[in-house]
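Progress narrative, Year 2. Work on Protein UBASH3A-like protein from Trichinella zimbabwensis advanced from sequence curation to structure prediction during this period.
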Amino acid sequence: MKENSAPKSNPTSSKGPASTTSDDATMSAMLSVSGYSMMSSMAGNQCIAESNDLLNQSGPGISKEAENVIVKKIEESKPQPMESENGTGRRVILLRNAERMDRIFPEWVDMAFNEQGKYRPYDLNQPLQIPFRSGDYLDYRYDSPITELGNIMSMMVGRTLKLGKQQPYKIFVSPSLRCIQTGQCLLKCLSNKNLKMCIEPALFEWLSWYETLPNWLPESDLLSAQYKIDVTYKPILSISEIRQRRNETSVECYQRCINAFKTIMDTQSENGNILFIVHSLTMDAITRYLNKADETNIPQNEINSMGGNYPYCSVLFYEELDDKSWRLSPTVLPSITFMKFTNAVNSNFLNRK
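Result:
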């Protein structure tokens, strides 16, 4: 698809009342078998072929020796309250976007849309509804939504922020749909129902990864789908300015993300939590700055491994100290773990020199 291709018909949703349900499925849609396509999922077939060792095991779930090891680790890693000694009261929460459709289902745009652009999921981990795009539905290929599991994980993070009394008073997100949807799901679980997301294009990941730059959902489409967007926020870099940087180097990308973070923090003097919902590489750029590590010499192999070191919905807490330095608080929230996945950040990678 060419970057400026002519729009195609996009009947993924109507502009009537049905389009105001955001990406939440109605109960009637959930109970309708016809809501799904019976096409075979390439991702599902691959999982069957590879087979998961944990699923193949039978008998007792754990040995006594393994149980003792787990109990010891639990004692060592109990969640701790935020350290407030010598702190200014300002805290930063970094959150990576939730599981994205195009990573789990690389073929989804070709299989879930018909020639008229009508969307129909073919796996239970795919959302029943997706936001209406006033442009080309093929733009989803480079601006993917999150999966149903991503939706759930985002709400789990939001619930934990609420229960742990770490709710943010301000949220900044990348313009990617996967980051915006992560924030939308998280917001459902917070107490402040008036809290909205500030979309900041300067927080987008490395542009040089893209042969075709994403056409992000315009603000009008997001508002029509009832996404909680702060329309009064003026971004540091506009979308057009970001597009002019498509040939940026990795160093320039890191500097862009860091400068955006610093500019935002300079405007936020209030005590409390500021949440950034961004990409794995953006998280790494900001943490390099907060950890006072070199951000000008990141090897390509490290850049290519960002997703594995900052998993989906990984969370990092930093607290500002009186000397304006930042301290990582690694055990504020419990992690999310299932099968062979955890959202915990690789601490060795995070603290590398």
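Residues 250-267 form the longest helix (18 residues). Confidence is low (pLDDT under 50) at residues 1-9, 13-23.
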